[in-house]
Every structure is written in structure tokens, then in C-alpha cells.
Amino acid sequence: MYLDPQSRLGIGSLFTMVLSFFGRERDHVTHSPTLPPSYPLAVRNPYLSTWMPSDQVQTLPFAEPQFWAGQSLTWSVMARVDGQTYSLMSVKAPGDNIRPAIVRSAEYTATHSVFTLSAGSVRLTLDFFSPISPSNYLRQSLPFSYLTVSVSEASANNIQIYSSIDGRWAGRPQNTARSFHQTESTAIYTLAVKNAVPYSEESDMATWGETIFAARPSPGSNVTFGSGKRGEVRAQFVQTGILAGNEPWVPGGIVALSHDLGTVVGRQSVNFAVGYVREKAINYLGKPYTGYYRAAFPETSQALDYFLDDYPDALRESLILDLEMATRAKVAAGQKYADIVTLSARQAYGGIDLTIPNDSLDTDEVLGFIKELSSNGNLNTVDVIMPAFPIYYIMDPTYIRLLLEPMMRYLVAGRWRKPYLIHDMGAHYPNAIGHDNQKAEPMPIEECGNLMVLALAYVRATGDVPWVEKYIDVIRPYADYLVENSIDIAKQLSSNDAAGALANETNLAIKAAVGLKAFGELAGLEDYSRIGEERADLFYTQGRGTDGDKTHFVLQYPDKPASWKIPYNLYPDVLFDLQTFPKEAYQMGDTFFPGVRAEYGVALDNRQDWAKSDWNMWLAGTFEDPRTRDEFVDDLWAFMSNGKHNWPFSDRYVATSAKGRTPGVPVLCRARPTVGGHFALMALQGAGSLQKGVLSRMMLEEMSHGEEL
Fold it and tell me: Is the pLDDT assigned to residue 28 strictly greater than 50?
């Protein structure tokens, strides 16, 4: 007889015994290619972002995954092997009749997180797969992720596979309604908040959409379903291996799906799909925008059927992407760099929604929206797009335009009247309503310079001159602002607003100079290019922005020779070969920064004990000495893999103990798409380089497959 664990005595001693057992097995768990802070499980957009902290992998059968912001979620997986049930993941209080499987290994690639476990004599893998397919707008916009459970080394074993989620996925578990729908081939559960308010959040979780959990039979399997009280639904599976349907819904209940594989010899796999659907995904200037995929599949069930049908093609593409990204990253800066960027990839795209108008579903009207995760939730923040752009530059440069376009249309409408560029397109996601009150966070030189660089990046990569011509009259006044305001710089914020406002910040002066040269290139106006070069001459050659011996750029000018800040704004000058600054300006860093390197690398500036990982990789892209570049890579890798933290990859962390804090731990930021900046070294391989490499490998594979046929 199955006993509800909440009603049993001795659960504490049982848990202690199990943890002791796992402790004895610890040496058998391997992490490949290294230990990350957290494993991405289902990471597709700001509201489908589920992670497994790495410090819980050892006890994965009991461990609960988390939403990116830290809220725990149930995503249980169990396997029943010859009548004995094993917990594989997230069975928090399993009871006497469920044994914990043994975790053997954990691995991540750019698109997959894979855990291998032993359940009796059977080996099982949990493959959490979130596609990255930016050029395929349909595939990329689908708000679902795969869980594939594979059985291997089976020898005529009778096997059933179970998975369930709970109401916490919907954001307000005590006010959640359940529904069930079955198409000809797919069983679909929906969890949604009752009487939801459109575009509302609860601790960064969306509360106006629908959580989706679905499965369909695989060859050789039958799917059953059940929902209701957690203990009762689990008991059905433990006792019989099948689920008996839907019972009354209660707060704290679960929805569950089970694959009955029957007798398995060798290997067999089954899929589950999890997702979060918002029909009205974004409020853009008062008009609802929806996911791009809805042009092809207006109904969620249609989209799910397509998503499950698409698995073989999506998997094939992902394996090629994983290989190509890792290979190119190793060429750029070695294995540790490959470890960094492959962990960053899903996170960089996981902050984006790809949308079209909800009324017309016009696929010619695609707009991209990106959330400033874990800070203030701003929408399409220019200085979030800026650090992230290297990954878009190499995977599909059109994303730079898609993310800028909502702002450009707003500017054309004349609703932003300040002389400098707007900071973002909305105070909080998903409301892209601009700032008609003119009260967006002011970062005048920062955002004006960013626009010049981003526009040039897009046009250089795509050759889309008509886009520039369309908006050149909007962009030019911001270039003029840089001309007029970037020598004696008024006190203002830069992208690193946590560091506070400064007057005469050298790194902003560098940004303005490079931005002016970029605009000159963009518009074909030599006067702006000349002024950019003159500003570079002023701040480097004439020494206004350096110490007296020209060993480094100072944080502030004049009269602050001992101060310093990482001059990451030099990176676009190198990337686009603008030659705004002479090579000697970059060479200073080769020798200066090893001298201020701390336990986990170089801090943002001499005032701080924290570093920014994206900007450090930008700066690494400016070094001529590969030894200095490799030091920056080594330091970021050391932070990422040190086992001291379990957040989704933080782009801000304590680099030095000099100010009394523990080094190697994150500060405030988690899961931010700005980790796209980690791809800065790969971006030096050329615009669209990764995209072209993936396409080339796919074509070669197709040709090879055709020859085999």
C-alpha cells in the first residue's frame, strides 16, 4: 500500500539516510565539459526559463528546478522498471515505494543539458533540449522546450516513464485552474491563473498566459494521463505504471503524463513538451503582439503538434550547432572559452520574444523584444542589446534590427523629445509603451554611441542599406549630440549604472569617438569620421584620457592618473576595423591589466571589487597579446566553474577580496541575455560566421545522406 509521505513518521531519518548514500556515490558523478553554476533545462523566453542549480545535481532525484529568478518548481520524472519505481528528478518526498536513481553524469552543450542515471540494471538519460534556431523564426518563436527520457542498456525490462509539473509554473499556484485537451495524437494539460490580468507578473513570472505540459505516444509506447492530489497521482503510477485520468483539482495538485514502453530491449526514447503560451505576448504602444509561430498555428494544440513533429529536424540542427559552436570557440580562444560560450547560448536567446501583430498575424511585421532580466525588467534596453550583440552578429545579424526596430518606430513618431537617445522601450516587460513622459533613465552618451555601433553592425553584416536610409534622419541628431557633448562630459550614467554617475568618464569619451566614426561609415559622411578620429587623438595621442606615461586609460580625466577602468568601448573599433584609435591604444591593455588582475580577474574599475563578464570578453577582444586575452578567459571560466554559486550564469561577480567580500560569487544579476557578449572573441571571425558554419555542415550532411540513399 502506498502511503502519502506527509502522513508518515520517520521521513527525516529516511532523508538523512538517502543523503548519506548519495554522499558515498559523489565521486562517481562527472560534469562535462565542466561544472556550471546552473544547468538550463527549459530556456526559451523570459517566462519559460527553468534551471537546475548545479549543487542539486548530486541529489537530482529529490531536487527541485527553479525559475530563473529563484522560485522552486516541481518537474518530477520517474521510471518504473519491472514494477519498481525510481525517482529520477524532483520527487521531493518519494515515500518507501520509490527508490532514488543514482546520478552518474551531467553534461551541457549549447542547446542540451543531459543527466545520466542508473535505475537498477537500466541506464536512463534526461535530455533537456531548448532549440536555438534564430534564422528559423517559426522554430525559434515556439514557446516550448523538450524533455527526452531515453532508456539504454535494457535487457527485456518492462518500463514506464512518468513526468509531472505543478501549479507553481503558472505564477500563482493557489489561484490556478487546470484544463485538459486531447488531440488525435497529443495529450495536453494547461495550467492558468484564474481571472488573470493581461500583461501582469508575479515576481517576474507571467500570470496571464498558460503553462503547457504535453506528450504523445512514441513508437512502441502508450500515453496515459492523470491530475489531482500529488500523492494520489503518484500512487497510481507506482502501483500500476499507468495514470487513471483527472481527479478534482486542488491547490498544490499536479498534472502528470506517463509513457508505457512495455518490454524494452536495448534503447528507447520518449518525449515530453513543456511551455508557456501568451496569445497577447507584448503590449507594443497599446497594440498586442503575439508569437511569430501563431501565423502558422493559431491554436496552441496545432503549435504543439508541430513542435513534437519537428523534434527530429530540430535535434539534427541542434547537434550540428553544438559541434560548430564548440569547434569555432576553441579556435577563437581554447577549450575554456568554448565552455563559457556554450553555457551562455540558451541564456542569450532566452530573454527574447519574436513577435508579430496579434490582429493581422502579418509575418512581414516581425519585432523582437528583449527583457532586462534581474535588474529592473526594462524592455528593449539599448545598453542590454549592445553588450549582447556579438552572439546575434555571428548567428543571425537581423536580430540586431529586430530588437532596434520597436524603438526606431517610436522615435520616428516623435514621441521621444530629448536630444539624446531613449534608454529603453518600457519601464517593465512586457509593456513596450515607451516613455511619453520623457522620464526614461538618462544615459545620454552611452545610448547615443550604442545606436551608432549597433546600426553599423547590422548594415555591415547584412548590406541592408535601405534600412539605414529609412532611419538616417532619426539617427543623425544623436550623432550631433555626440559631437557637441563628448569632450567635457557632464556627470551621467554609463551602462554600468550600479557604479554611479561620473563626469568626464574616459570610457564614455571612447564610446563617443568610436560612435562618431561608426556613424561616418554608416552615413558616408566624412566629417563625422574625422571628428571621431580627432577625439581619439585628443584622448589618446594628446593624453587627455591616459596617465602621463600612457600605460592605461584613466577612469576620469583630467587629474586622475591613478584611476582606471576597462576600456571595453574600444572593441567595436577593432571588430569593424574602424581605426579610430591607433594600435598603441589597445596595446596599453596588454601590459597594464595583468598588473591589476585579482583572484577572479579584473574588476570594472579601480573603485569596484566586481567585474562584468560581458565587458571583460569585449576587452579581451582588443588585446594583441593572446596571453592577456587568455588570462581574461581563464578568469571568467574560473568564476563560472568554481562551485561557489548556483544562479543562472551571472554577468556580474566579485573579482577581488581587496574590499573584504568573498571573491568568485555573483552580485545581483542572474540569467541576463547580456552573456551574448561572451561571444565577442568569436565575432572577430566575421559577421554571420557561426550561421554560415552551421548551414555548411547541414548541407554536407544532407549531401552525404543523399549519397547513402
Answer: yes
Q: Per-residue pLDDT tens for 254-268?
A: 999 999 999 999 899
**pLDDT per residue over 306-358, tens digit each?**
999 999 999 999 999 999 999 999 999 999 999 999 999 999 999 999 999 99
Strand, coil or helix: what is 323? helix
Run of H or E residues at 451:
helix 444-462
Concatenated DSSP letters for 96-163? TTEEEPEEEEEEE-SSEEEEEEEETTEEEEEEEE----TT-HHHHH--EEEEEEEEEEEEEEEEEEEE
CA-CA distance, 653 to 304, in Å (whole number)? 39
Written as one letter, the residue type at 341 is: V
The answer to whether 259 and 268 have CB atoms below 8 angstroms apart is no
C-beta of residue 580 within 8 angstroms of C-beta of residue 539? no
- Report pLDDT for 80: 97
Please state, in angstroms and as integers, the Cα–Cα distance from residue 186 to each residue in 45, 120, 223, 526, following that order. 23, 30, 9, 61
Phi/psi of residue 650, nearest 5 degrees: -90, 135
Q: What are phi and psi of 217, to 5 degrees?
A: -60, 140
pLDDT at 523 over 70: yes
CA-to-CA distance for 92 and 63, rounded, in angstroms? 7
Q: Are strands 210-215 and 254-277 parallel, antiparallel or unpaired?
A: antiparallel
Q: Are strands 84-89 and 98-100 parallel, antiparallel or unpaired?
A: parallel
pLDDT, the chain, mean: 94
C-alpha cell at 235: 500512487
Q: Which amino acid is at 24?
A: R
Note the helical H segments in 259-374.
Answer: 300-309, 311-333, 335-349
Q: Which amino acid is at 223?
A: V
Amino acid at 661: R
End-to-end Cα distance, the chain: 55
3-state per-residue secondary structure call for 656-696: CCCCCCCCCCECCCCCCHHHHHHHHHHHCCCCCHHHHHHHH
Residue 154 CB neighbour total at 10 angstroms: 20
Rounded distance between C-alpha atoms, residue 670 and residue 375, angstroms: 9
CA 442 to chain CA centroid, nearest Å: 26
Q: Which H, E and C letters describe 558-570, residue by residue?
A: CCCCCCCECCHHH
Contact 665, 639 (CB under 8 A): no
Q: Give the pLDDT score at 153.
A: 80
Give the model's pLDDT for residue 11.
34
Report how far residue 307's alpha carbon sits from residue 298's, in angstroms, rounded to the nearest whole number: 13
Helices 382-395 and 689-708, packing angle to 10 deg: 30
3-state secondary structure 108-122: ECCCEEEEEEEECCE
Residue 643 CB partners (closer than 8 Å, separation 6+):
35, 54, 55
Retrieve residue 292's grid coordinates: 511569430
What own/partner pairs with CB < 8 Å and gap ≥ 24 does 693-697 have? 693/324, 693/328, 694/317, 694/320, 694/321, 694/324, 697/320, 697/323, 697/324
Residue 708's pLDDT band, with cuts at 50, 70 and 90, is: low
Q: What pLDDT sits at residue 706?
A: 66
How many H-runs (helices) and E-runs (strands) does the chain carry? 18, 26
> What pLDDT, on a 0 to 100 scale, did the predictor assign at position 6?
31
SS3 state at 382: helix
H helix or E strand, kind and range, residue 204: none
Q: 503, 440 in Cβ contact below 8 A?
A: no
Radius of gyration of the chain (CA): 26
Helix (H) / strand (E) containing 288 = strand 287-291
What is Dmax (Cα atoms) for the chain? 84
**Strand-pair category, 254-277 with 144-166:** antiparallel
